[in-house]
Every structure is written in C-alpha cells, then in structure tokens.
C-alpha cells in the first residue's frame, strides 16, 4: 500500500469511528439515556456513592436489576461499574430484600418496609458499622426493581443523593397499557407504525424491542400489558398464538409486567364450534373454563381479560338477553381460581336507544352496581363520549361504590392530532383525576374512586391506550413519549404535578440545561389547551372528520347513527350552539352528584370549558371576557393557532440545545401542527358562521380557504383506522 493509500485508509477509518461513536439521537432510547453526567460536582458525588454495587441473589428480576445498574452506572459515571453478588469492603450501593441480601437484612429496616407494601421501596443513605451505603430495599424483588429505576431517575435528572430518605409505593395497583394491536400488526388508532408485536416471528424470534419496552415500562411502574385490540380476534386464544403470548410473557415477567388478553365474547362459537356464547349456558362456561386453564398452562401468571362487549358491533351477553354482569361474572368465575381478573369495559352505547350517548353507559351500568364478582373491574373512559380533547369526568365515577372502577385514558392521541401534534396529556389526565365527584361529600375525587380508597376496594387500576408502534422512536412524535411516560408516573402517583413529570422527562430525554428545561416545560404545559382551542373550544366536542378523526368535520351528518355525526353534538342553529344536557334537554347532568349539577346546570356558573357541553347558548350571549359567544369562539380558535406559533418560536430558539435530529423532527411536526391548527380554525369558523351569520372580528386573521374547499378535503389512507 502506498503512503497516500495508507493515509486515505487511516482517514476513512477515523471517519468510521467518529460516526460509530457519535450516536444519532433517533429517540429509540426514550427517557432511558445513560450518558455521562455533565455536572462535575454531581458526577463526583455519584462516583463516590455508587462506585461499587452489590446485588445479592440471582433470580430473573435481580438479574435485571444487576444488568440495568451495570449498564446505567457505566454510562452515567463514565467508566465501567461492575455489580458484584458478594458484599465487599468497598460496597457502596446495595440493592435487595431482607430475604435476598444479608446486608439489607442487617440494616433492620422492617418497620419502614412495612409501610411500602408489595411494590414499594426504600431508598436510603444509611450508615452501618461505620460505613456509608446507598440502599435500595424492598419487601419484594419487584420493589427492588422499582427502587432501582427511581434511583436512576434521580441520577439522570442530576439530583443530590447524599441524604436519601425515600419511602415510595404506588397508589394504584394495576397500571396497565392497552394495546389496540391487531394480529396482522395494524394498530387501531395507532400512529407510530405497525404493532411492535411481531406475531409472525414469535415465539422463536425475540426482538430486542420487547426487552426495551419492558425496561421502559418497568422504569415508570407499569405492571401489565393487554397485548391485543379491544375489538378482539379470538385467534389469539388458539394454541398457535398462545405459544407466542407465552414467549412475550416470559420476556416481561422479570420486569414485573403481567400479560393480559382481550377476549372476544363469541369465541366459544368461533373456536369451540358451540351454537351459542350465552354466558349462562353450561357448555359455554365449560368452554371458557377449559380455555382459561389452557392459557395458564402457557402463562402461569396470566393477568386476565379485557372485554369490549355489546359495543360498536362487538358480541356480548346482551345478544342472549343477559346483562353485562352475567357476561363479566362468567369469565370472572373461571379466572378466579387462577388469580386472574376481568376488566369489563363500560364504553357502551346502544344501537336501539335513541338517548343522548353521554347517558348510556351510566344507564346500563349503574343498576348493576353490587352484582359483579370480586375479581371484576369495570373499566370506564375518562369522559362519557370518547377521549375528546376535553371532557367532563364520566358520571359513572362515584356512582358505583360497590364496584372497583378502573380508569381508561387514551395515550394515543386519536382526537388530539394523532402522531403529528404536540399535546402533553398530563394536565388532561390530572384534570379528570382531580375532578370532584362529591360521591361521599367534598373531596371525593375521581382519583380516590379509581385508587379504591373512597370505597375501600382491594383492587384498583388505571389503563392507558398505548401510543406505541414500531417507529424507531416508538411514538411518531418525539413528544408522544412524554405521554407514555406521564401515564405511567400518574398511575403510580397521581399527586405528582404535570410540571414535575414534564421536568423529569425533559431532563432525561433532552438535557438538564437550565436554559432548556423551563422553555420546553412551558411549551408542553400549554400544548393540550392549544389543541382544545383550535379544535373544540368551550365544551364543543366530536367535530372531527369521518373515520380518520384527524382533521375537522363539523358538517358531518347523515351517517348510520346520529351519534356518529358532528351535528348531533354541536347542534348549531341560527339561534345558538351547544348540547343542552340540563333538564330542558337530555338531562345527562342528572347523572352527576347534586353539588356538581348545581355548578354546571347554570350557564353563569358552569365553567366555560364545559359551557357548550351542557348548554345550548345564544350566539350573542355574553361570555366571561365580555365578548359575545360568537366572538369568543373566534378568539379561542385563533388563540389556539397563536399558541402553536409560540411553540414554534420557542422551539426554534432552542436550536443548538437539542440534538439536530430531534430538533429538526419536532420543528417539522410543529409546522404541520400550525398548518392543521389553521385548518381546524378556518373550517370550523366558516362552517359555524353559516349559522351565526356574524363576521369574524376584524382584528383576527381571516380564513385562507372557503368552506366548500375545506369540506372537500378527504385524507386518504390515514393511519390507525
Ligand atoms: C373509539 C375508537 C375506536 C375504538 C373505541 C373503543 O375510535 O377505534 O374501538 O373507541 O374504545 O375511540 O372501543
């Protein structure tokens, strides 16, 4: 090789290494980035307190703990940190239960450990025989795992860990992701690619993603996953698929995550060749019993079923004149001996009942209170219609004291801009959780219903419809990750503030820079309200385009069901707009406690964000700003667009503080969001103007297109349908 060739070769080699080392920020690592701690002082402190790690025991969960600590600390501290299984003189960080670790046992932490239950943990700076330790202690290995991730969060957000005195446990028992994933890998209302479950290659091929999914979930306390769509396919209950389910369950088990499936109610007919799926038929019962027993031979800790029955065309007990309780109890009975549960969804609205859809779940379920078996939870969406950008809390919360009610949130942004709009959902989740049902007087919040404390239920749960797909960054929009993160954190502890959760996420996902964190937090905190304003301000709802649910369609009418149209919900006329749900209208308001009714029944005291949800209001009625309703709507729609533009400015100003890849990605998404916000604003205002017959205030931006043009837009092949 000539000198020039040698030089060229060396140069190419150099370039190759440079590329290999500079990891592109493609978002795959989520909030689990273990890069060198930048703050020198903190780094010193961490090296001192964590340099030698001891995890005694070799169970699968403790192995996960070891591996995670080794990987994380090596990355964060910048040099190889070995985790040892034996106590040495140099031991600094110790993790274990009194049963697995002699050192933890010697610390006599029993009284404190009593407080943290089966999943909680202690994180302590502890002196023992003249030596200082950082201790992760728990009653169970799962608790140790959660404590480990808590400590890693402290490190990733660069907190002081010198005087740790953390005692922490989850408020809700089941913290579950619902995947609306089909067996062909399409995802209903999924906007981040295809399903991460590669059914074709399972059980033989275990994708690294399954492990990273489990790590991410364990890091935020999620302890269950429903693998399949609520619009269920009974095929998943066949041996061919149960083998695949088993493979996933085996991957997730060490991370404390149980697997659940959706049960198609007609499976005894489809798979068992029975003539009926009547829940009171002995053969049907026997079929389910055998099926459940079979599932447990594959997955001994199988969690149970989520069921969507007699809803949107799905089969259910009502096909046989049986009640939802009959259906749920039949499944519960066969699951009970195995420790499984039934999560029976309350998202029902009848084809034949021409009543306000808002009222139907309550009408059907409230009379069943007290008739469900102990291992049934009724899973209720946050609001009575369907995951709209804003809904008042569902009237079932507080109305079924004898039944554990599980919360169902939607993390995937079906109605909030899907995979392209930035909408941080923690404030929305919290708004519902903090709402007061007044079921047992003031302070009976939805959160207390859901965590079981209000009515002393032994089981409790929160489910979130996942926004995860096989996109390299998991969630399409980089900020979609924050919603997955926030759901887990709030399911664990709904008292955390949205701001605090945002801060954690920003620091772990981008950086802890004091010039970045508050700016991004501000963007996130205002983002959901921005969406509400440019889509459905002041209590408007269900204005989206047919089927795709992405863009505006306030003109949608004449569909197979009135309550699948927009005109059914906004009820705009020349006089005014809004759905009268008071006594003079559908009286859905009567389903709430008297204290809630008292506040919402009067347009003067009804919070403006719910005004048109409960009232039909005249275009000229005065609003709190002093403007007429029409003008106020124009201002809100325009304000929504302005908020997106403010987010764009903020994001632009952060160039250089965020890696190029993700900065560019978010910048492009914000441009889409700005365009879509205008689309929503202009289409809705032009359409409503045909009723209000009033001008858009002079000082506001004028619509760019005509109503006819907007009405002709029909997105093709939208994702997630
Ligand atoms: C609606 C979705 C639909 C779901 C349904 C449900 O549009 O795809 O199947 O909810 O929750 O939001 O069952």
Q: Concise description?
A:
With 721 residues, this protein is of the alpha/beta class. It has 23 helices and 16 strands. The strands form 3 sheets. It has an 8-stranded parallel barrel. A 6-stranded mixed β-sheet has the order 2-1-3-5-4-6, with helices on both faces.
Show the helix and strand layout:
Elements: H1 3-21, H2 40-50, E1 53-55, H3 60-77, E2 83-84, E3 93-96, H4 102-106, H5 110-116, E4 121-128, E5 131-137, H6 141-156, E6 165-168, E7 174-178, H7 208-219, E8 224-226, H8 239-252, E9 258-262, H9 267-270, H10 282-298, E10 304-307, H11 324-335, E11 341-345, H12 357-365, E12 376-381, E13 405-410, H13 426-434, H14 446-450, E14 461-465, H15 480-492, H16 498-509, H17 517-535, H18 567-570, E15 576-577, H19 594-600, H20 611-614, E16 617-618, H21 629-653, H22 660-692, H23 707-712
Parallel strand pairs: 1-2, 1-3, 3-5, 7-8, 7-14, 8-9, 9-10, 10-11, 11-12, 12-13, 13-14
Antiparallel strand pairs: 4-5, 4-6, 15-16
The structure holds beta-D-glucopyranuronic acid.
């Amino acid at each position: 090789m000539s000198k020039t060739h040698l030089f060229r070769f060396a140069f190419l080699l150099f370039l190759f290494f440079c590329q290999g080392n500079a990891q592109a920020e493609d978002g795959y690592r989520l909030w689990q980035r273990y890069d060198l701690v930048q703050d020198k002082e903190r780094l010193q402190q961490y090296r001192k307190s964590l340099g030698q790690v001891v995890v005694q025991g070799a169970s699968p969960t403790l192995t996960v703990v070891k591996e995670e600590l080794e990987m994380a600390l090596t990355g964060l501290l910048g040099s190889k940190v070995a985790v040892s299984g034996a106590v040495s003189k140099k031991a600094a960080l110790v993790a274990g239960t009194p049963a697995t670790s002699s050192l933890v046992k010697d610390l006599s932490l029993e009284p404190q450990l009593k407080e943290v239950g089966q999943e909680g943990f202690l994180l302590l700076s502890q002196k023992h025989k003249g030596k200082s330790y950082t201790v992760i202690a728990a009653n169970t290995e799962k608790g140790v795992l959660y404590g480990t991730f808590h400590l890693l969060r402290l490190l990733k957000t660069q907190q002081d860990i010198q005087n740790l005195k953390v005692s922490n446990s989850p408020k809700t028992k089941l913290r579950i992701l619902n995947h609306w994933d089909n067996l062909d890998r399409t995802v209903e209302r999924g906007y981040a690619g295809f399903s991460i479950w590669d059914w074709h290659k399972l059980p033989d091929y275990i994708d690294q993603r399954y492990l990273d999914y489990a790590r991410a979930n364990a890091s935020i306390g999620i302890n269950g996953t429903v693998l399949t769509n609520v619009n269920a396919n009974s095929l998943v209950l066949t041996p061919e698929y149960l083998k695949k389910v088993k493979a996933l369950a085996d991957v997730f088990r060490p991370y404390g995550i149980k697997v659940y499936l959706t049960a198609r109610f007609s499976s005894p007919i489809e798979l068992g060749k029975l003539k009926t799926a009547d829940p009171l038929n002995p053969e049907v019962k026997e079929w389910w019993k055998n099926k459940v027993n079979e599932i447990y031979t594959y997955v001994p800790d199988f969690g149970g079923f989520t069921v969507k029955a007699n809803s949107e065309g799905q089969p259910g007990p009502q096909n046989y004149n049986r009640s939802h309780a009959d259906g749920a109890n039949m499944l519960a009975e066969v699951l009970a001996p195995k420790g499984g549960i039934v999560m029976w969804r309350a998202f029902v609205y009848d084809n034949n009942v021409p009543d306000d859809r808002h009222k139907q779940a309550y009408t059907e379920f409230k009379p069943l209170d007290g008739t469900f078996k102990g291992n049934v939870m009724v899973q209720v969406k946050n609001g009575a219609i369907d995951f709209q950008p804003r809904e008042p809390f569902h009237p079932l919360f507080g109305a079924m004291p004898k039944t554990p009610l599980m919360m169902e949130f939607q993390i995937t942004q079906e109605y909030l801009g899907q995979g392209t709009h930035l909408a941080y959902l923690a404030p929305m989740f919290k708004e519902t959780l903090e709402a007061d049902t007044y079921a047992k007087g003031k302070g009976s919040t939805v959160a207390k219903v859901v965590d079981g404390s209000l009515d002393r239920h032994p089981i409790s749960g929160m489910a979130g419809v996942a926004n995860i797909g096989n996109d390299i960054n998991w969630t399409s929009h980089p900020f979609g990750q924050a919603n997955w993160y926030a759901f887990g954190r709030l399911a664990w502890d709904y008292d955390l503030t949205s701001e605090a959760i945002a801060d954690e996420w920003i620091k772990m996902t981008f950086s802890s820079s004091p010039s970045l964190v508050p700016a991004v937090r501000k963007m996130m905190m205002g983002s959901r309200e921005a969406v509400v304003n440019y889509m459905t301000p002041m209590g408007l709802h269900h204005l989206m385009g047919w089927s795709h649910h992405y863009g505006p369609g306030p003109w949608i009418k004449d569909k197979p069901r009135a309550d699948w149209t927009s005109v059914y919900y906004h009820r705009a006329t020349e006089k005014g707009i809004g759905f009268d749900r008071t006594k003079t209208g559908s009286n859905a308001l009567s389903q709430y406690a008297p204290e809630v009714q008292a506040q919402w029944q009067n347009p003067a005291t009804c919070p403006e964000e719910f005004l048109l949800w409960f009232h039909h209001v005249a275009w000229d009625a005065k609003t709190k700003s002093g403007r007429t309703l029409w003008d106020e709507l124009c201002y809100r729609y325009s304000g929504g667009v302005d908020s997106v533009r403010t987010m764009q400015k903020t994001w632009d100003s952060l160039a250089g503080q965020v890696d190029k890849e993700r900065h560019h990605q978010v910048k492009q998404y914000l441009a889409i969001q700005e365009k879509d916000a205008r689309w929503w604003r202009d289409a809705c205002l032009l359409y409503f103007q045909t009723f209000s017959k009033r001008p858009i205030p002079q000082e506001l931006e004028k619509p760019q297109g005509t109503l006819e043009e907007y009405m002709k837009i029909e997105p093709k092949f939208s994702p997630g349908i």
